[in-house]
């Protein structure tokens, strides 16, 4: 009998404890709900904070444009660069215009239509005129940008070379350097394949192809003539690299196992670009920073970079480019050693 009574007491104690826990949970939930209730004061505070943040946000945008807006590339060094820059300016101008118009409205509406005691939201189902406006305007803007973009892309990728045959130059990428190969007097590159790489033949030029005998291998930098089109052929030995020549507004991936290409016509020699007001200002700013760090002065040069993160020494893939007059280029190319002579 004592055992039964003991068991009954234990069961009742468990039931009582369970009820106490339920009561505690219910009271806690009610207290939490009261704490989580959004008051009119909270709404007012959040609305004002949104407005203040919006003002600071737009002010910071203007401040960044003012502080760093002059750090863009500036004058292009290729003939197609002006069209490229105009397309960039048109696209960014449209984006910034919409941004400046829309963002302040969004922040202001968050403040204006914050929760206020006694005010209820208005049910607004549909308006055909508004739907038409905010559908047609973006559609027209995008159509203009896309059409002009395709036109610019077509002119850049398939330029008219009816007057002058482009100089063919191969750019060969590997971890972590660039090598260039000029097509020589016949203006035709000999066949090359990474399987033929051996010893001094670092580009894998096929020794049985007569077209490659007059090719010229250059390892210390590109030299290009002003005003003459240059057709670049890109190859890669190992992984995907990206040949990036920012001042010429040119970039193309170098893909193992295939050849890609990009063509442009240099419009300013290196010496002329060094006299550009924007370049002079940038060089002075850079040299002021370098002087503080105890480094040698910097002088502007065109450059070929890798724009893919291709490994630990990716940053070392810098290849100088010098643009000279056609006469200086002809003199330079005549002094170079052909592949046949090097063999």
Automatic annotation (TrEMBL):
<dbReference type="GO" id="GO:0004129">
    <property type="term" value="F:cytochrome-c oxidase activity"/>
</dbReference>
<keyword id="KW-0812">Transmembrane</keyword>
<dbReference type="InterPro" id="IPR008972">
    <property type="entry name" value="Cupredoxin"/>
</dbReference>
<keyword id="KW-1133">Transmembrane helix</keyword>
<dbReference type="InterPro" id="IPR045187">
    <property type="entry name" value="CcO_II"/>
</dbReference>
<protein>
    <recommendedName>
        <fullName>cytochrome-c oxidase</fullName>
        <ecNumber>7.1.1.9</ecNumber>
    </recommendedName>
</protein>
<feature type="transmembrane region" description="Helical">
    <location>
        <begin position="49"/>
        <end position="68"/>
    </location>
</feature>
<keyword id="KW-1278">Translocase</keyword>
<dbReference type="GO" id="GO:0042773">
    <property type="term" value="P:ATP synthesis coupled electron transport"/>
</dbReference>
<keyword id="KW-0813">Transport</keyword>
<feature type="domain" description="Cytochrome oxidase subunit II copper A binding">
    <location>
        <begin position="164"/>
        <end position="335"/>
    </location>
</feature>
<feature type="transmembrane region" description="Helical">
    <location>
        <begin position="6"/>
        <end position="24"/>
    </location>
</feature>
<keyword id="KW-0472">Membrane</keyword>
<feature type="transmembrane region" description="Helical">
    <location>
        <begin position="132"/>
        <end position="153"/>
    </location>
</feature>
<comment type="similarity">
    <text>Belongs to the cytochrome c oxidase subunit 2 family.</text>
</comment>
<keyword id="KW-0249">Electron transport</keyword>
<dbReference type="GO" id="GO:0016020">
    <property type="term" value="C:membrane"/>
</dbReference>
<feature type="transmembrane region" description="Helical">
    <location>
        <begin position="88"/>
        <end position="111"/>
    </location>
</feature>
<dbReference type="InterPro" id="IPR011759">
    <property type="entry name" value="Cyt_c_oxidase_su2_TM_dom"/>
</dbReference>
<keyword id="KW-0679">Respiratory chain</keyword>
<feature type="domain" description="Cytochrome oxidase subunit II transmembrane region profile">
    <location>
        <begin position="65"/>
        <end position="160"/>
    </location>
</feature>
<dbReference type="InterPro" id="IPR002429">
    <property type="entry name" value="CcO_II-like_C"/>
</dbReference>
<dbReference type="InterPro" id="IPR036257">
    <property type="entry name" value="Cyt_c_oxidase_su2_TM_sf"/>
</dbReference>
<dbReference type="Pfam" id="PF02790">
    <property type="entry name" value="COX2_TM"/>
</dbReference>
<dbReference type="GO" id="GO:0005507">
    <property type="term" value="F:copper ion binding"/>
</dbReference>
